[in-house]
Amino acid sequence: MAKSQESFMFTVGKLDAGMAILLGERAHLIEFPSVLLPPGATTGSIVNISVHQNTTEEHKRDLEFWSLQNNILEAYGHTSPSPPNLEVRNVTQTSVTLEWPTINLATAKLRSLDIYKNGQRLAAIPNAVTNTSTKLSSLQLDTEYTFQLIMRTTAGTYPSNLIRVRTHTIVDTSGISVCFGTVQDPALLENAKLALGEMRAKWSDKIQIDTTHFVCTTPAATPNGAQATGGISSGPGVEYQRALQLSIPVVQPHWILACLSEKRMVPIAGFYLGTTPSTPMNSAPFQRPQSMSQASLPQSASSSNMHRNGPNRASMPAPQRVSPASPPATLNGRPHPTSPETSARSIPLDATPEEDHEEENPAGMRSPTDSAGRKSRSGTMDKNFKFPPSNTSPPTSVSEAPKPKPDPPSPPGLETTGAAAREAQDGELTPISFVVPSSVEVPPPPPVEKEKPAQVVDDGEEEVGETEEIALN
């Protein structure tokens, strides 16, 4: 330790709470720790303080510092994390499977590993330190996408290479990746593997991340459904159970053969395990079953000739109606073509009332133009026409009955119903006649007595009898 060339003299002015106030010769006042004062120093004591530099200790400290820096450089400065190398493993119509080598973090720590689709963050990779692949589903058919991995570490951010992938079309079957389970027919299994080879598809015995279908004919682990010894029923295979957990469709080998035959991706709805394949090999082309209306039913020769040659396609004749309110039997003086002449006629829906009445009038009916040249309404009666006498028919109404006369003519303007006129024309039914009664008396209604209004008695002015005063004492 080098001695100081000069020392400073101070007078202890005050001691308080472990601190000493020192006063110098040049009016310097400093605070000095009392623990550094010589033993026995009190207020008023004079002390000398000298200060010097320790270079030996400084050199030792510098050597220790730079040794630590060199160790940090050797451990963390020569290696750095490597960006992930992204690759395409499999592509289908609606999914893409990506893979990459195990990430190299060097001496850094991983913060996140994210997958980006078309420049936007899609999701984070789970277990990024050990996971080396991912499958992206729900993609569009025949569409181009870009994918990239971005790794963030304590040493910085490292993006991967950018890849461009286009999903397959419906006729591209090279993206099929099959895991075979238990197939009971060895020939069928061999044919399915050959078909996959022709389609440039892949297959394996273990389920992988890019497996698209699980193919088997039975969920059992053995082809016969029972173990070799003991005859105990065999349970579902491990790969079959894993396919169910991963929601991988379980189909029959016939689906692979159908895809090869159709040269496209065939829907798997008819090839699930447990269903009968809809299009087995060497079968006739698929035909849509006919409905009951299109099914071939036995027909007679007459009916077939009618549908082939006859223009009249009416199924059944109109039913016979004899009521007075039935539709007209003829149209323009001719029988209606859709019904027999002996039955009641029906008119088409588009016939007007004028066309209905323009027919041959029976005896006593006026023609559309009378003798004077005046046009009259069809269906009215002639003034000189008389109904035959009859005493069986009651009068139609009281208002239409005229004064009692023997067989008077009908009053002018009386219209007969179209049904009665047509029945008289055809001659098949007897015409309806009207008979005038000798006298019709209508008794007058009995007189109705008016109700007398009830007398209203006011409660406030109720009448009372005579009153009498009674003394209380």
UniProtKB/TrEMBL annotation:
One of its GO terms (biological process) is Golgi to plasma membrane transport. Residues 82-173 form the Fibronectin type-III domain. Residues 210-273 form the BRCT domain. It comes from the Eukaryota. GO terms for cellular component: exomer complex; trans-Golgi network. PROSITE patterns: BRCT, FN3. It comes from Serpula lacrymans var. lacrymans (strain S7.3) (Dry rot fungus). Residues 352-361, 458-473 have a biased composition (Acidic residues). Gene3D superfamilies: 6.20.120.50, BRCT domain (3.40.50.10190), Immunoglobulins (2.60.40.10). Residues 280-473 are annotated as: Disordered. One of its GO terms (molecular function) is protein dimerization activity. Residues 289-304, 388-399 have a biased composition (Low complexity). InterPro entries: BRCT_dom, BRCT_dom_sf, Chs5_N, CHS_Export/Cell_Fusion_Reg, Fn3_2, FN3_dom, FN3_sf, Ig-like_fold. This is Fibronectin type-III domain-containing protein.
